[in-house]
C-alpha cells in the first residue's frame, strides 16, 4: 500500500509485481512441521476467537432464540449480534464490519441487495463527502493555521493572561470543529497548540509547575474543545449525522432535521459545556501567579512571527474561504421558519443539505487557484484522505435502522419495553445519556450511537414521548468520551504529545461528563421540546 501510494503514473500496474529470488540451495527450505506449527500459532490468537465470536453468536441466536414474529426478526437480531461483536472487539477493521450488511442482509432474507446498497449513499452521506472535501481544502491551504494564530493573538493579552490565552486556543478549536469533523479539527489544531508550547522549557526536574500545568491545560483544552464544538453542528461529528439519518429512515414523513434546526439546539448546549470546560481547566491548571512565569517564554511577538511566516492571504485561500462562507450561508437559509421559508421552496424542498455540500465542493474543482496554468483549487489527488471509514459506518448505521424496522424486530422491542410506559421522562433521559457516555469509553462514538439509537426509538414509542427527546440524549451522550485515551481518536492525538496522563483526563473528564449529562437533561425538556413543537 505504501509503495503504491506515492506512484501516480497511470501506466503503473495496480498491484506491484514482486519478483522472488530463486531459492538458494545453501539456505534451508521451509520445513513442513515447522510451517504447520507456525500456522497453528497464528490461528490460536485472541483475535481469531473474536472473529469467530460474531458468527457463533449469530448461529446460537438463529438456533436457540424463538420470537413470536416472522423469522426475519430473529435473523435481524442474529446479524446485529454478529456485527456488534466485531465492532466492540475490533476483530475485523471497523470499515469492513460496516460493509457486512451488504452480504448478511440478503443472505439472511432481511432485505434485497439493492435496498441495502441504497443506504450507503443518501443526502446525509453526500453532506459528509462534500463537507470533508471542503475541510481538506482548508487544510491544504493552511487556512486553519492562519485562523488559529489570528484568534490566539487576539486572546493572548498584554501582559500575558494564561486563562485568556487558553480561552483563545479552546475557542478556536471549538469553532473549527463546528464546520469540520472533530477529529480533523483536533489533528489540525494540535500542531498549532504544541507550536506555542514549544516556546516553554522542556519537561524535567527543573521545569516550573506553572509551565507543566499550562501545557496540560492546553492539550486537554484542544481535545475536549474539538469534541464539544462538534456537538453544535451536523457536520462536526459522525454521531450527529447518524442520528439525522436514522430519524429520516424511521420517520420519513416527519420534518427532517436541517442544519439550522440542529444549530438552534446544539450551540446553546455546546456553549454551556464549553464554558464549564474552560472554567475547570483554569481552576485546576492556571493558578494565580502563573502569568509572569509564562510571560518570559510566551508573548505576542512569537505569535506574530508565526503569522508573518505564512505571508499574506493568496487568491486560492480567499476563494476557499468564500466557498466555505457560501456553504454555511446556504445551509442556514435553506429552511428558516414556517413563516419565513428559505430558498429550498424554490426547488419544492427537493434540495437537501447534502445537495449544497456537494455543489460547493464541486466548485473547488472548477475555480482556478491562480498559481499554475490550468490548476484548480482542488484536484482528486488532494482527496486521498477522504474518511471512507466514516462514510461506510454511516451507511451501516442507516442499513441497520432500515433492517430493524422492516424485519419486525422493532415491534418486538416495543412490546418488551411496555414496563417503561409509566416511567417519567426526567428519570429516563439522564439514564440514557449516562449509558451512552459509559459505552463510548470502550467503543467508538459512532458504533455506540448505531447500537443505542434504534433501541431508544422503541423506548420513546413505549413511553409515548417524542422520539428525539431520547434519541438526542443518547447520541450526544455517546460523544462524552472524556476519560480514556482510546475513547476517541481526538484523545489519542492529545495523549501522544506526552504532555498529559490518564489521571489528567480522568480529573477533568469526570466533572465534564457529569456537566454534559446535567446540561442535556435540563435543555432537552426546554429547547428540545420547543424545537420539536
UniProtKB/TrEMBL annotation:
Q: Where in the cell is it found?
A: Membrane
Q: Name one GO molecular function term.
A: malate transmembrane transporter activity
Any one of the GO CC terms = plasma membrane
InterPro entries from the xrefs?
SLC13A/DASS
In terms of domain of life, where is this protein from? Eukaryota
Q: Does the keyword Transmembrane apply?
A: yes
Keyword terms of this UniProt record: Membrane, Transmembrane, Transmembrane helix
Membrane-topology annotation of the record? Multi-pass membrane protein
Looking at the UniProt entry, the stretches that span the membrane are: 48-65, 94-112, 124-144, 164-197, 218-242, 262-286, 307-331, 351-367, 388-405, 425-444, 465-485, 505-527
Pfam families, alphabetically? Na_sulph_symp
Q: Point out the coiled-coil segments of this chain.
A: none
The keyword Transmembrane helix appears for this protein: yes
Q: What is this protein called?
A: Tonoplast dicarboxylate transporter
> Organism source for this protein?
Linum tenue
Amino acid at each position: 500500500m505504501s509503495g503504491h501510494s506515492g506512484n501516480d503514473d497511470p501506466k503503473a500496474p495496480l498491484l506491484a509485481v514482486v519478483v522472488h529470488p530463486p531459492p538458494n540451495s545453501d539456505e534451508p527450505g521451509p520445513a513442513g512441521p515447522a510451517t504447520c506449527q507456525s500456522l497453528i500459532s497464528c490461528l490460536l490468537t485472541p483475535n481469531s476467537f473474536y472473529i469467530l465470536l460474531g458468527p457463533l453468536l449469530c448461529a446460537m441466536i438463529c438456533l436457540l432464540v424463538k420470537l413470536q414474529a416472522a423469522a426475519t426478526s430473529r435473523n435481524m437480531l442474529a446479524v446485529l449480534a454478529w456485527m456488534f461483536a466485531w465492532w466492540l472487539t475490533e476483530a475485523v477493521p471497523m470499515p469492513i464490519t460496516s460493509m457486512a450488511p451488504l452480504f448478511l442482509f440478503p443472505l439472511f432474507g432481511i432485505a434485497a441487495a439493492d435496498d441495502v446498497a441504497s443506504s450507503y449513499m443518501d443526502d446525509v452521506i453526500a453532506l459528509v463527502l462534500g463537507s470533508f472535501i471542503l475541510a481538506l481544502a482548508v487544510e491544504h491551504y493552511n487556512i486553519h493555521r492562519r485562523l488559529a494564530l489570528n484568534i490566539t493573538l487576539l486572546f493572548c493579552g498584554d501582559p500575558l493572561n494564561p486563562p485568556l490565552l487558553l480561552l483563545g486556543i479552546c475557542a478556536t478549536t471549538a469553532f473549527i470543529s463546528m464546520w469540520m469533523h472533530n477529529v480533523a479539527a483536533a489533528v489540525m489544531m494540535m500542531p498549532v497548540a504544541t507550536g506555542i508550547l514549544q516556546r516553554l522549557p522542556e519537561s524535567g526536574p527543573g521545569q516550573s509547575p506553572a509551565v507543566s500545568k499550562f501545557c496540560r491545560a492546553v492539550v486537554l483544552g484542544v481535545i475536549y474543545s474539538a469534541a464539544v464544538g462538534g456537538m453544535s453542528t451536523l457536520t462536526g461529528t459522525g454521531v450527529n449525522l447518524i442520528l439525522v439519518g436514522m430519524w429520516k429512515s424511521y420517520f420519513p414523513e416527519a420534518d427532517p432535521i436541517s442544519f439550522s434546526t440542529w444549530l438552534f439546539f446544539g450551540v446553546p448546549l455546546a456553549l454551556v459545556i464549553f464554558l464549564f470546560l474552560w472554567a475547570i481547566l483554569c481552576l485546576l491548571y492556571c493558578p494565580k501567579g502563573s502569568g509572569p512565569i509564562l510571560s518570559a517564554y510566551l508573548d505576542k511577538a512569537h505569535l506574530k512571527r508565526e503569522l508573518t511566516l505564512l505571508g499574506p492571504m493568496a487568491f486560492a485561500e480567499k476563494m476557499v474561504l468564500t466557498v466555505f462562507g457560501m456553504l454555511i450561508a446556504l445551509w442556514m437559509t435553506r429552511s428558516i421558519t414556517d413563516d419565513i421559508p428559505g430558498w429550498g421552496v424554490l426547488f419544492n424542498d427537493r434540495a437537501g443539505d447534502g445537495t449544497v455540500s456537494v455543489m460547493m465542493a464541486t466548485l473547488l474543482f472548477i475555480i482556478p487557484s491562480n498559481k499554475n496554468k490550468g490548476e484548480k483549487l482542488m484536484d482528486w489527488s488532494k482527496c486521498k484522505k477522504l474518511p471512507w471509514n466514516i462514510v461506510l459506518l454511516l451507511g451501516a448505521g442507516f442499513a441497520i435502522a432500515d433492517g430493524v424496522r422492516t424485519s419486525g424486530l422493532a415491534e418486538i422491542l416495543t412490546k418488551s419495553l411496555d414496563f417503561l410506559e409509566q416511567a417519567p421522562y426526567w428519570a429516563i433521559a439522564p439514564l440514557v445519556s449516562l449509558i451512552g457516555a459509559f459505552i463510548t469509553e470502550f467503543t467508538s462514538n459512532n458504533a455506540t450511537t448505531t447500537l443505542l439509537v434504534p433501541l431508544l426509538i422503541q423506548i420513546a414509542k413505549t413511553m409515548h414521548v417524542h422520539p428525539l427527546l431520547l434519541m438526542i440524549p443518547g447520541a450526544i451522550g455517546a460523544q462524552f468520551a472524556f476519560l480514556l485515551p482510546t475513547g476517541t481518536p481526538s484523545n489519542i492525538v492529545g495523549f501522544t504529545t506526552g504532555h498529559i496522563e490518564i489521571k489528567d483526563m480522568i480529573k477533568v473528564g469526570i466533572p465534564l461528563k457529569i456537566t454534559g449529562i446535567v446540561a442535556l437533561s435540563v435543555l432537552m425538556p426546554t429547547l428540545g421540546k420547543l424545537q420539536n413543537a
